[in-house]
Structure formats: structure tokens, C-alpha cells
Amino acid sequence: MAEIEFSFIADDPVRIGTLQSALTEFEGRSRVKVRARVFPWATAWEELFKIVVSEAGPDVSEIGTTWLSSLVSMNALRPFSGQEVAALGGPSVFVPAAWQSGSVRNNVGAWVIWAIPYTTDPWVLYYRRDLLAQAGIDEQAAFQTLERLEGTLHRLQESGMPSPWVIPTVQSYVALHALAHWVWGAGGHFIRADGKRTRFNEPEARAGMLACFRLHRYIAPAARNLDAAQVTELFRMGGVAVALAGHWLLDTMRQGGAAPVVSANLGLAIPPGVPFVGGTGLVLWRHCRHVREAVELVRFLSSDQAQAKYGVQIGLPTRLAALERPPFTTDPGYKVIGQSLRIGRGFQATYMWGLVEEKLTAAVAELWAEVFANPDIDLEAVIAERMGALAARLDSILSG
Fold it and tell me: What's the mean pLDDT in 181-209?
């Protein structure tokens, strides 16, 4: 019996147990032994980098979608062939944003598939229906456009709500993910499709950033400089009226522990602009010695049957067929999440995107800190200065 090693990322005991059950089923079906390694999110990238350096370890790994371009640039992965992709059902069976995140354009302009979508993480707006009603706001129209979102936050503040708005603003990748809604919504981009030049300093992208950072006036002091977990905690305990976050906030609410008034008045809406969709993918390492068995595991884990059986306990699905089944057809919250999945976008795994994402993440955090410290600064000028300087530095590297 062949034996392969699979690493996945998890902090939740439920996810670990469910994935172990899935691997046990695969072993029974395939007569392939799977050794599992679990990496927590906090150290997952470091563990994956160790695999790159040692050129040994797992045959198959789960990775964050935005890490793909870095691993490809290190020549650490084995691409999937056209025949292997066809055996999965082809690109059309997957959520478009999820499929897009697994391919990288090569030197001759062709797309190469390096990762198969495994889980998705769509972002949505969470809001307090009771607080909107008290402010006389029609929740059906409150978030339809970026302008209406700002108007809704203004009316909440005028009605006496001390903390209308929160998004992640401390230095972390999720703060950049949040900003993407406004950049894409304004018609902007972060990087050129070939990865040879940045685009976040173009007028459209800067206009989106300006619209996002302008909302600082609706973020109370207690809601500033928070990461994703702190945003979740603030909203579920009733400390804010509207939050932008991934699907994990709904999961946390459903697991209990939220303030009763929040649970009783929870509303979800598709974010204006273009929703961000993150998630994970499955990759094969270049050092993989049991390719046939490893591909078989990827096909099983990403199959519609496995996603239907193990459901959201592993992660939100990547296949469009899953969105036609409960809970996406029966649960009001998951209906909104499913809609966000269908129309959302992820970061394209372009050449050197890992470097661009790292530098942009730091720059976004610095901008938030400056805005909070000096709320009357000329935002448009500061954004233009910061993004212009960063784009010039990165463009010299990318074009070289």
C-alpha cells in the first residue's frame, strides 16, 4: 500500500476531526495510506517555507490562496496537467473566484494550474437590524452601493449610535482584503495581469482607497486597530452596528456566545463594490514521489461528493453545485454568503504577488494609523504620496 503525507491548516478541533474522517474514508476507498500533519494558521506559512527549503515533507498541502505565487516563484510546486484538471470536472464546475486563485500566467502568457480550489472565504456585511430601524434606515437599500453604505453609517452616527462601523485595520493581510472591496468597486486593480507592474497607484485604485479610508470618521476609538478576531468579538458582543468580515463571523455567531440582542437582530448583506473571496487550495510539491496517489487525494477532497458530505465543518465549498444545496438554499445567512461567492473576486496569483501583498499590507496599516492619529489630514494627498512611492519601488523590482 502506497503512503503519502498531507498537511492542512486548522485551529478548530471540529475541522481537524472532520478532515481526519474524510481521510479515513479516502483510505478505505483507495487503499492509499495518508499521514496527516496539522499546521495552525499562525505558523502555517513558516511551516510551508520549511518544506520549500528542505525539499522534503508532505506530498500534498493545503495553502492559503494568496501564498501560491510565492511558492511558484520558488519552483517548489508541481503543476496539474490538463488531463488531471479535466478529471476534476474542469474550471466551469468551480466558483470563479476560487478557480482564478489557483492559476499563474507563465512566461509565454499561458495559464498554468498550480492549485485546486479547496475552501472559500467570502466576505459579507454584518449589521444590526434593530439599530438600522431605529435610525429610520431601509435595510434593503442600505448597502446597495459604496455611497449608500457611507450614507447609512452617517445616519447611524447622527441617530446617536456611538460606534457605527468596524473593519480590520491593524497590520494583517485581512486589512488589505477589506480594502479590496473599495478598490475593485471603483474599477481599480492592484497589479497588472502579467505581474510586471503594479496598478494600485492608478486613479481608480486611489479613488477606491480614498472612499474606504474616508469611513474612519465612523470608527469609534474602541473599534480602531483591530484584527479579524477582534472585529468578530466587538460585533458579536454588541459593540458596533455594521462590520465587514469573512464567513467566520457567522460561524462564531451560530456557535453561540453572542449577546442575545445581536443574535436576535443579525442581518447580512452583500458588500457594495466587489466582494473579496479568500480561501485555500490544494497543491502538489515538486518533491512528491507518489504523484498518482497524491492527485487521487486532491480529486477526492475537492469533489462535490466530499464537499456535500463533510460540508461547512471543513470550510465553505468551492464547487458551484454546493451552492444549490442546504444551507445555501435554506439558511438566510448562507444565502447571502452564497451570493457573495458567486460574484466575488480573489487576488490573482500573479508573478511576485507575495512581495506586493506584503508591502501593501504594511502600507495600508500605516495609513490607518496615520488617519486615526490625524483625522483632519488631506487623505487624498497622503494616499497619492504613499502609493506613488511604493509603486515606484515595486515597479523597479517587478520590471527587472
Answer: 95
